[in-house]
Amino acid sequence: MERKSGKAVDVLDGSNIMELVGNKDVFSKFVNHKFQELDRDRDGKLSVNELKPAVSDIGAALGLPPKGNNPDSDHIYSEVLNEFTHGKHEKVSKTEFKEVLSDILLGMAAGLKRDPIVILRIDGEDLLEFLNGSVYEPEVVSIFSQIESPHVSLHDLIIQALGKLNVDQGIPPTSDPWVINNIVEPALALLSEHGSYLNKPVSQEIFMEEFKKVALLVANRLREQPVIVAHSESKFDGSGVKRLLSNKFELDKILSSAIETLPKDRSGKMSKDYLRVALDVVAPSAGLPPFGAVEEMDKVIGEVFKMVSADDAKLVKEDEFKKILTEILGSLMLQLEGNHISVSSNSVVHEPLGSSSTLLQPSPTTETKV
Fold first, then answer.
1. What is the enclosing helix (H) or strand (E) of 279?
2. For residue 23, which phi and psi values (nearest 5 degrees)?
3. Are strands 92-93 and 45-46 parallel, antiparallel or unpaired?
4. Could you give phi then psi for residue 309, rounded to 5 degrees?
5. Distance separating the N- and C-terminal Cα atoms of the chain
6. Which residues contact 117 (CB under 8 A, 6 or more apart)?
7. Conformation bin of residue 364: beta by default, left when phi > 0, alpha when psi is -120 to 50
8. Sign of the alpha-carbon dihedral angle for 174, 180, 182, 184
9. Could you tell me which of 30, 203, 218, 291 has the fewest CB atoms within 10 Å of its CB?
10. 365 burial class (0-12, 13-18, 19+ CB within 10 angstroms)?
11. Residue 253's pLDDT is what?
């Protein structure tokens, strides 16, 4: 992954997970501790309710928002739970828990190895470098031309312009309320004290002058209160789909799992309307994002569905459903091989690293020597 602006505090590349799962003795002790921790009624099996804290921890370790906050990520929690229970509301043995947890952790490690998360410390230095560099003026002029409006105040224009910048220019995500309330608004408040045009529409000349003043104040705020940002980049080039399609046994297993819980009529047929649901289940194994997570991918998926007439709501038998789903995967692979999609994300880390999830925290009784 290309180095981003900001001082790299840590790189999460999955190596610690591989080290944990790869050592059988250490991983067995780790699983024993976690199982005992979850098995509150001490019956030697985990109920759905007892598994939920583990599922929440896995979600936190994956960087997902808490369950109930985002419909796009909530289904992932459901799928993780289904992995443990096999779609049934039965209790899970320690052996089953260990097998599924190992698969999930190895999947997480593979994802982090492919797309590491870089933890950056944004402290104002890169922003000052940007403000004093040769690219500052043309870039901000371009941003102003995109957001200019005779009805928008300077205050709102500046916030919109800061939102167009990112960690490359030394700006933490302004979509984060903490950044707005503790970094941006205090800088704007200081500017307003000096009689600026904050509440009025302005010309490009005034905007350029006032924006630089705010940006310098933001740099000062960041020097006093550095912001920790988790930065990740993902590249969807079809290689994950290709790997899955090349393993017929694994493909059939995943397709069967994907359609296991889908509704069927009396003759065992299912509607093609559920192809999107099934594709979402298959997505992690194919190196694809969930539907709704990446706009560019959603467009590609939409085009592929039109090509194979996947949205005509016809009822088809299970084998036909699998065949169409495989055809969709093949078409996605070809589309992505010819036109890679790269996306990056930045999110503010509000808690000490690792504190949001207890999943990988070693137990007091677990040996950590490898």
1. helix 275-282
2. -100, 105
3. antiparallel
4. 50, 45
5. 28
6. 11, 12, 63, 230, 231, 232
7. alpha
8. positive
9. 203
10. exposed
11. 92
Residue pLDDT, tens place only, 34-74 = 899 899 999 999 998 888 888 888 777 665 667 776 555 56
Tell me what pLDDT residue 367 has.
35
> Does residue 108 carry a pLDDT above 80?
no
Residues 329, 281 contacting (CB under 8 angstroms) = no
pLDDT tops 90 at residue 257: no
Q: Which position has the token pair 């759905």? A: 48
Q: How many helices (H) and strands (E) does the chain have?
A: 16, 8
Three-state DSSP at 277 gives: helix
Q: Of the candidates 83, 102, 166, 336, which has an alpha carbon nearest to the alpha carbon of residue 234?
A: 336
Q: Count how many residues are written for the chain.
A: 370
Phi and psi at 9, nearest 5°, equal: -85, -40
Q: For strand 270-271 and strand 92-93, is the pairing parallel, antiparallel, or unpaired?
A: unpaired
Instruction: Give the C-alpha separation, 174 to 155, whole Å.
Output: 14
Q: How many degrees, rounded to 5, is the angle at CA 315 between CA 309 and CA 317?
A: 105
Q: Which tokens in the block code for residue 78?
A: 């459901």
Percentages (nearest 5) of helix, strand, coil residues in the chain: 60, 10, 30
Give the integer Cα–Cα distance in Å for 86 and 143. Answer: 50
Would you say 270 and 263 are in contact if contact means Cβ atoms under 8 Å apart? yes
CB 81 within 8 A of CB 51: yes
Question: By the 8 A CB rule, do 45 and 98 touch?
Answer: no
Dump the DSSP string for 137-201. Answer: HHHHHHHHHHH--TTS-HHHHHHHHHHH--GGGT---TTSHHHIIIIIHHHHHHHHHTT--TTS-
